[in-house]
Specification:
There is one protein chain. The chain is an alpha/beta fold. The protein is globular. The protein is built from 10 helices and 8 strands. Strand 5, helix 6 and strand 6 form a beta-alpha-beta unit. The longest helix is centred in the last third of the chain and has 18 residues. It has an 8-stranded mixed β-sheet, with helices on both faces. Helix 5 packs across helix 6.
């Protein structure tokens, strides 16, 4: 579900342009190098902090950022397998600057505090699989309830507005299950290059999301679609049958992992398209 096929291509491009050496590229990416995201037009001032959230299973370390004044709809962000890191802090802050109270979580808190990927997004996937495999439907839904309950205790969160949730890679199905765990609070769900959205099990994330009242945005990587060409059809048919508004699109030319700015396959053009669709979703569903 998480690939690094383009890491070497990016390294060669940067080296050819004289920007970095082979060693420097590895060091930078391992340290959490983040491409600068475009600035938010009319960005609001924000307040950011590292926070801890108590859950039934322990204490989760998270990043919380919100407009400095007033209240705003809450958004719960589930990172990809590389976890809570500078790239997702930047993404969370950018979202807060558009007017949302954003909690970016460390989904692996039961085992390790962030950072959980020693080399950032250059960390070999096999090293991280044990962390991902330790999570399951129960842990995901337990955490979703705890995180949203924590958000609802914050003065910066608008209690009369629905909550949004978004996930990347393995975070996609967790976002689906978040809506199922707290259906009365979650009004919008977004998945970007989500892996495992559709399974043949009765508790498949897409079937759980179909029982909610949330609006959905599902952005699919082109190479994921090549591997699972029927998934988009299953998603469209399932959500249409449930009468849930769902925007489901394959992003041409975008490889799995294209959204985080520290990814080896970061695609700014397609990432910005996904960003614009996310803001459109939240603008409708969390208004």
């Amino acid at each position: 579900m998480c690939d690094q096929d383009h890491f070497e291509d990016d390294r060669q491009e940067y080296e050819a342009r004289g920007l970095v050496t082979r060693r420097q590229f590895g060091v930078l990416l391992g340290a959490g190098m983040v491409m600068a995201l475009p600035q938010v037009t009319n960005a609001v001032a924000v307040t950011e902090s590292d926070v801890t959230v108590m859950t039934p299973d322990g204490t989760a370390d998270c990043y919380f950022v919100h407009p400095a004044t007033g209240t705003a709809p809450a958004v719960l962000v589930w990172p990809d397998i590389f976890g809570l890191r500078p790239a997702f802090r930047q993404m969370g802050k950018r979202l807060a600057e558009t007017g949302y109270s954003v909690l970016v979580v460390n989904p692996f808190y039961r085992v390790q505090k962030a950072p959980t990927a020693a080399q950032g997004s250059a960390t070999p996937i096999p090293q991280l699989m044990p962390l991902a495999q330790a999570l399951n439907e129960t842990t995901q839904m337990t955490d979703a309830k705890a995180f949203i309950a924590w958000l609802d205790q914050q003065a910066s969160v608008a209690k009369n507005r629905k909550v949004g949730t978004q996930g990347y890679c393995m975070g996609g199905p967790i976002a689906f299950r978040t809506a199922a765990a707290v259906p009365d609070r979650v009004g919008a769900v977004a998945s970007f290059h989500g892996g495992g959205l559709v399974t043949d099990m009765p508790n498949s994330p897409h079937l759980q999301a179909a029982k909610t009242k949330a609006q959905l945005l599902i952005a699919i990587a082109a190479n994921d679609d090549m591997q699972r060409p029927n998934e988009k059809t299953v998603l469209k048919e399932t959500f249409a049958k449930a009468n849930l508004p769902a925007e489901i699109e394959v992003y041409t030319g975008a490889a799995h992992g294209w959204c985080p700015p520290d990814s080896g396959v970061y695609n700014e053009g397609q990432a910005e398209k996904a960003w614009s669709r996310l803001l459109a979703l939240y603008g409708k569903a969390l208004a």
